[in-house]
Amino acid sequence: MSQRPTFAPSDPELVVERVSKWFPVEQGLFRKPRQLRAVDSVSLTVGQGETVGLVGESGCGKSTLGRTVLRLLDPTYGRLTFEGRDITNLGVSELRPLRRRMQIVFQDPYSSLNPRMTVRQIVGEAIQIHKLAKSDAQEEEMVLSLLDRVGLRKDALTRYPHEFSGGQRQRIGIARALAVMQDAKGGLLVCDEPISALDVSIQAQIVNLLQDLQEERGLAYLFISHDLKVVEYLSHRVAVMYLGRIVELASAKDLYEHRRHPYTRALLSAIPVPDPEKRRLRIVLSGDVPSPLDPPNGCAFHPRCPKAKPGLCDKDVPALRELDEGHTVACHLPEEDP
Ligand code: SF4
């Protein structure tokens, strides 16, 4: 798989500024709840028509960030700007019209589709909520055209989610998201592990569908995945998250070829490389990801980092700084450019 060419987005679709999402965890009757810092002071932009990949181990806060930027979760701190408008504190009714321009595709299409509804009802419901059709006939026409666009046949209309394969269900999930967004060009789709529940052969079809839809409609994607190869293929830029924070952000080409953060190096060293000349030593990290309820002092990665320097890494939180143009890293001792 090759990387996508460098992308120079004109205007940002989404601007995330120092956004945190903390969840209170009760500690008992007389004790104050502790805060689980799922997302901690994340800043990021997604340009119009751009794909930004978001990678990191399970539990690093990727999905929470995806839901927070869409305001499916309320941010604890920080500011969110969508298409030039501050959406941080908008209420449900103010957000409703914006939902026509920002949607999510979930990892498990089965659990996100109502098993008692037919495909006609599932996709049609999205059209009804946003009052996008003037009549039943027009609604059905819109549903049919969406099914056709995502590669499902007309007879899918009257069938239920359990009658479809995983890949087909994901197509229904994409059709439902697009049903709301179909009146406009552009917009943002958060894809939360959209292919990880699918067979490898089907994954490629969904990835190609997402890429085609992006070209047709100028959609921006925040593409969350733990599949590093797919992220490399699909993304213009990639952000690496560790314990709720972004530790490295760069163009896909730069990140995969000139990884500078020790965590990114370890993460990417697990990707199989067919060319023996390009193979790198696999870096196996010791220990598990610490709890976001009790993050380590200083750099959160220091207990597992092979380069950690006592007295520095366990004391000071490294700021995200630009090492090369468009390549930012949060590390006191970034690796040399290989
Ligand atoms: Fe490792 Fe220190 Fe860099 Fe953290 S700041 S990644 S502990 S070298």
Fold and architecture overview:
It is a single chain. With 338 residues, the protein is of the alpha/beta class. The protein contains 10 helices and 12 strands. It has helices at 62-69, 92-95, 109-112, 119-129, 136-149, 166-181, 200-217, 228-234, 252-257, 262-268; strands spanning 12-25, 34-47, 51-55, 77-82, 85-86, 102-105, 188-192, 220-224, 237-242, 245-251, 321-324, 327-329. Strands 6-7-8-3-9-10-12-11 form an 8-stranded mixed sheet, sandwiched between helices. The protein has a 4-stranded antiparallel sheet with strand order 2-1-4-5. Strand 4 (77-82) and strand 5 (85-86) form a beta hairpin. The protein is globular and about 70 Å long. The relative contact order is 0.15.
By DSSP, the count of extended strands is: 12
How much beta, percentage-wise?
Answer: 15-25%
Unreliable spans? none
What class do helices, strands and sheet pairing give? alpha/beta
Order of SSEs, N→C? Answer: EEEHEEHEHHHHEHEHEEHHEE
Strand order of the largest sheet: 6-7-8-3-9-10-12-11
> Radius of gyration in whole Å, from Cα?
21 Å
End-to-end C-alpha gap: 21 Å
- Ligands bound, unique: iron/sulfur cluster
Helix content: 25-40%
Average pLDDT taken over every residue: 90
Question: How is the main sheet built?
Answer: 8 strands, mixed
Question: What is the number of helices?
Answer: 10
Shape: globular
